[in-house]
Amino acid sequence: MNGKRLLIGTCGALLAGAVAYGVWVAWDTGLIPGNPRAPTIEAMTPVAREAALMQARKRGALCAAPDPGVRPQLKAIPGVAPHTAPGQFGVAFAFDDGSLDTLQRQRVIQQYGALAKVGYLEASDIEVATDAGRRPGKMFTLTRQGYASLASPDDLELCFAVGDYEVGGIKEIKKLPDDAQKGVWYEARLDVSVTGVPDWIKEPEVQSLFPRLAELVKPTEMRVRLLRADSGWVSEARHQVQSQAGSPAEAEKYWQRLAAPPKLDAPAAKALLGEYVARQKWLGPGTNVCLQLLLQPGGDDRNTVLAAHTFSGTFFDVPLVKRQRHEILDLFTQLHLYAALEGAKLAVLEKTGPAIFGGEPVAGGVRYSLVPQAVEGFRAQQGARCIPAGQMGAVELLGVHPDGYNGVRIRAKAALTGTPEWVKPIAGSLPALKGLLSEGVYFTGHASYGTEVPKKWAVDSLHQVVAKVEATELPEVLRPLLPRTAGLEVPTPQAAQAVKPARASSAKSHRIPFPAGNADVHVVSIYEGIPFTSQPGIGGERRRFWTRASVTPSAAPVMLLLVAYEPTEWRVTVEPGAKVQRILALGHYDQSVKVTGAEGIDVDTRTHADLLGPLGIDYMKAFPYQPASGDPRELASAVKAITGKAPATYQASRRGRNVFRIGTASQ
Q1: N or C: which end of the chain has fewer CB within 10 A?
Q2: CATH-assigned architecture of domain 35-61+163-246
């Protein structure tokens, strides 16, 4: 009897075990739904789609751009510093400049023309100067519609959005060969398409001019690898982050910055922008907007002591070879500003007598003096020196486009109201002011999908793209008054050559502006640093950033060449034993340098316009903040033109690190 009971018990236990095992197998293989680590399409889909979207976006921005290979005769609207914003962007091409690239030139002009037909650019006929004389051509400027469609992530390129990636469901899953060290891996195959493709790129003419577009928006297939972890499925990219991070918390935080966010549609982006503007004291209706005057008190005569409520600038008539190349652009820009103010009866022009310039006698020059109304209106005595353009209206969202893995680029605009009547006449001869008054204020910004729980979208930056005056030649009205400056009385062929715009190929023979001497040159290039928590308080300013650099001991003395696009404060620490002879901070916007650990270092700051322009250096080619995208020859040539030596090291990053190490530890 006992044996029978034992047999029944044993059979029951075996049956129960078999049933339990069967249930576990069913759960483990997904036959019973709800297991997050089951090898089923349902369990894998969220992770696989996220991985495929990240992989697709690694291919770069989905946008259309003209071919960059043909050099335009004009790279900017005359009198305006170049930037990709309406009223600030312009290029002009001669139909035939006498060179050998006529066919390629015609194609590029047709590409710009196709973008003008869409409404992204505005085309106009123009006559431009070439090496073969003045020739007819086309000028292209950016429109509001084009600005709204810009998808380039760094605000320096002209590339128009053509859609966004969308990942479909999993079509197939396949188990990969077992690897005891790496775990159980599967491969998932998914379809990836491009949504929001505009109709204009489907036109035969456009597809012929931009052959890469058809391939760019064509549906494709992605294969992603997934690891079966204890808690569910993990993509290969996330597994790599987890393997390299110092702790699970650090890995999770880093991953949240990389992970592809949900789409941010226009209504949600508009609401986010409105919330951000409402929190900022420097934005929104009523904010003052001004155009920087960029006038130096005294001009060439830096020893002049200006009386109260006065402002003037004296400029001597000397050949351009007597000036540093970075000073020539500054000279032309100031004279254009003064000439425009004189035309609006806000400045008085007079001839000056003999004087001393650079230790040598000069026959004379010109002096501009602002009238009292201009001194008061421009706040020149207070050091602001800007032309009040009016007050900002409501900030309006224009466009939203993906920017990298975890964010979107925002384009916005605000109209201007309340422009002072006495300011309007200046715009007739000052294109930068004319563009600002007619176009209003444009903004570029960024929104990120936060890493905190609950995760949500938030605008983390918004910058004004305010026009800036920049002139590359002497005003026509001043040529008879400054004949030597105009090159009308040039004593040597060298001086005549100096009047011509500088080219990159001529940089080898120029005077080195910041010689490195016996120091090694170490270069750091970034787009922007770490943002300050406070925002600028008046209209015309940009948000500022900071980043750190630490110089360690090395065999040779050090010269630092620090390059940024946005306004950046460089905090340089010189460690014991390190020898730093010179620091040059170079930026599209004004830079500043704070040094600790050493004294007596020669520190200079320059803008791209006043240093790189006269040297014929293309900033984006010479100092890319993504080293792999640059040409080492361009970098070496640019650094040699500035310092006389090739760089010893080069470090680059889109956003500045907490610290760059220079010396024995630099890479």
Answers
A1: N
A2: Roll (3.10)
